[in-house]
Design brief:
By secondary structure, the protein is mainly alpha-helical. 58% of the residues lie in helices and 0% in strands. It has three helices and no strands.
């Protein structure tokens, strides 16, 4: 292998690695934003973390919400404002960006839960 080819392969490898690191950082930031949004908007009633009970007994923990829906349905529910039989639950409409962040966080909780 010539030095020129070796150099090109090294550069390509570094670009791939840096892209993967940037993607992981972006995913982590997205999940953090999703958690923060849920804490702010839903945490008064719902448990937000991977464990723990909800402050409001009737409110299901958010970690149990993700498996109840198909991803597109949950996405639509968050964007349009989830409707609940519980009358005191506010109907909060999240932006597309906020919805993506919330879904990333809930997905991470669902994946983490699996054995």
């Amino acid at each position: 292998m010539t030095p020129r080819i070796a150099c090109r392969l090294l550069i390509a490898g570094l670009l791939v690695c840096s892209s993967m690191v940037a993607s992981a950082a972006t995913s982590s930031q997205l999940r953090s934003k999703g958690k923060a949004l849920l804490e702010e908007k839903c945490g008064r009633c719902h448990a937000i973390g991977a464990v723990g009970q909800s402050p409001l007994k009737e409110a299901p923990p958010m970690r149990t919400i993700y498996p109840r829906f198909l991803p597109r349905e949950l996405q639509a529910e968050l964007r349009e404002g989830m409707v609940s039989r519980h009358r005191a639950m506010p109907q909060i409409e999240f932006s597309d960006e906020d919805t993506d962040a919330i879904l990333a966080y809930l997905y991470a909780l669902a994946v983490k839960k699996k054995p």
